[in-house]
Amino acid sequence: MTVTGGVLQAVPALPTAADTAVRLLARGDDEPPVTLPRDPAREAARRELSKQMYHENDPSWLQRALETFWDWVDDLLGAASTATPGGALGLVVIVVAVLAVAAALWWRLGTPRRRPVTVPALFDDRPRSAAEHRAAAEAHAAQGHWNQAVQERMRAVVRALEERALLDPRPGRTADEAAAEAGRALPAHTDRLRTAARDFDDVTYGGRTASEGTYRRLAALDGDLERAKPALAGTHPDARQGATG
């Protein structure tokens, strides 16, 4: 305060630091007091969002893969239904028909299995007589084990031909080889011998299941071969049939 002509006058006080800060904040400028460049701000946001607390409820990689797969299947079926006559109903009919054909082939042909490049021998290491093989075949047949019955009966057929000297005993012979060699000695039964060898291979190496009819057909061949007489060398099959007719 100053005295002028006996009158007291007030002198404005100097602005304090607090007043200066208030005036700066109340200035109303659009620009914030502190700014960051764009790239560092984006990197800071990325680091923040990469924290585990923000991803606790995210789906696993397996769930994401399954969702992607089913989306692909849905798109594929949708495209197929638009291209198929009858739309979605026509597509369902085609799928059912394909499944029915596949089931019929599986039932008829059995489970596909890779056939070995080299076919194993017909007999195992322990030699047995034709009578022993027949007895084993009948024992399997009595229990309904048709695969084993067919195998043993085919071995009985070949062993019987060896015992009659119509086939040379030879280790490692396959069923196909035995049928081909026996067909030259008994040409009237060539086709049945080949069928028997094919049945043996199917159940032994091809994964097929034999039936009772397969076994009975092979047993009948075994009996007919026991009564069959070998062909003479150089005799034509038609001449033999005329001689026996």
TrEMBL record:
Pfam families cross-referenced by the UniProt entry: DUF4129
TM helices/strands, residue ranges: 86-107
InterPro entries, per database record: TgpA-like_C
Superkingdom of the organism of origin: Bacteria
Protein's organism: Streptomyces werraensis
Descriptive protein name: DUF4129 domain-containing protein
The keyword Transmembrane appears for this protein: yes
Domain Protein-glutamine gamma-glutamyltransferase-like C-terminal, residue spans: 153-221
Protein keywords: Membrane, Transmembrane, Transmembrane helix
